[in-house]
Structure formats: structure tokens, C-alpha cells
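Whiteboard transcription, Tuesday session. T.W. wrote the C-alpha cells on the left side:
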């Protein structure tokens, strides 16, 4: 009768191990999210010091796709060309931040500022000339991605510590159950 609502004693170790492994997977997902946000923010900061050259917008359009909530997601899609040391390159990155939005007007204004044929300043990576951006230094949502990574990682750690602590605690208390009768 003492074990109502609790798994049998032999299964507790397996449950605890499962919780620890799930917690470690959540920590790994959090670490990955943090790394992605950190890398995007670092690239954005580094791009502020990149040299610039004139470029030309080759194509500019709004891509519309359905979002999970039944609305639409709008994304600016831009292709531009530029030359470095006599070699031509093509790129499509506007910034290191995200430009997708549920706000069609905001995305259309972004595209209107980048019409086909327009001359634009292209910042390019001096170590990889094929890597370029039109708006250097713009981080966008990278800060939020880092925060999500931190929160997810902390949640995973709480899961691991909780499984280890409460698993040990319930084991030590279960040995005393016969003394209370």
C-alpha cells in the first residue's frame, strides 16, 4: 500500500535514468540553440568591420508561405551581385538577423528599398569573398535565440538534478518505511 502512485522499486532506476538522459538531451538542444544565436551575433558584429563594394540587385521579391497558426509568413528574397578583385560573386543575405514576418507591409517596405537594378553597398568577408551582407551589424533575433538556449539548458539541468536528487532521496526514505509502522 505504501507504493500507491509510485513505480515498483525495480523500475525506479530505469525511470531515473530515462529522466537523466532526457534532461541531458534538453541541455544539448539548449547548447545548440545558444551556439547558433552566439554565432549569428558574432558574425553580425564581425561584419561591421568588413570592407564594402558597390553591388547591384538582381532580383527582389516577397515569398509568402503559410504559418502554423493559419496565417501567412512573409520573407524578403533578394539576390545581388558584386565584384572583389575582378571576380564576380552573388549573394542573398540581407543581414545576419531574420527578416521573416507576419507583417506583410514591413516585408514589402524592405523589398521596396531593394528594387531590381538598384546599386547597393555590399559588405563582404575579407577571408571569404563569397560571403556578404547588405546590412552589416544587424543581429536580429540572435539575442533571443541565445536566451532560448540558456532557458532550455537550465530546464534540462533542473531535470537532471531533480532526477538524481529525488531518486536518491526516495531511495533513502524507502529504507525507513518499515520503521514508521
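and on the right, the sequence the group agreed on:
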Amino acid at each position: 500500500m505504501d507504493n500507491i502512485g509510485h513505480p515498483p522499486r525495480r523500475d525506479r532506476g530505469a525511470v531515473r535514468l530515462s529522466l537523466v538522459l532526457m534532461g541531458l538531451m534538453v541541455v544539448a538542444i539548449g547548447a545548440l540553440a545558444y551556439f547558433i544565436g552566439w554565432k549569428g551575433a558574432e558574425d553580425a558584429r564581425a561584419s561591421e568591420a568588413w570592407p564594402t563594394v558597390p553591388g547591384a540587385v538582381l532580383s527582389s521579391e516577397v515569398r509568402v508561405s503559410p504559418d502554423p497558426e493559419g496565417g501567412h509568413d512573409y520573407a524578403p528574397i533578394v539576390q545581388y551581385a558584386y565584384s572583389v578583385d575582378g571576380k564576380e560573386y552573388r549573394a542573398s543575405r540581407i543581414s545576419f538577423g531574420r527578416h521573416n514576418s507576419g507583417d506583410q507591409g514591413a516585408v514589402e517596405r524592405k523589398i521596396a528599398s531593394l528594387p531590381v537594378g538598384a546599386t547597393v553597398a555590399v559588405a563582404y568577408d575579407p577571408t571569404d569573398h563569397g560571403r556578404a551582407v547588405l546590412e552589416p551589424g544587424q543581429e536580429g533575433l540572435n539575442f533571443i535565440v541565445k536566451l532560448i538556449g540558456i532557458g532550455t539548458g537550465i530546464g534540462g539541468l533542473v531535470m537532471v538534478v531533480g532526477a538524481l536528487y529525488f531518486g536518491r532521496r526516495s531511495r533513502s526514505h524507502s529504507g525507513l518505511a518499515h520503521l514508521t509502522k
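Someone added at the bottom: The chain has a mean pLDDT of 83.
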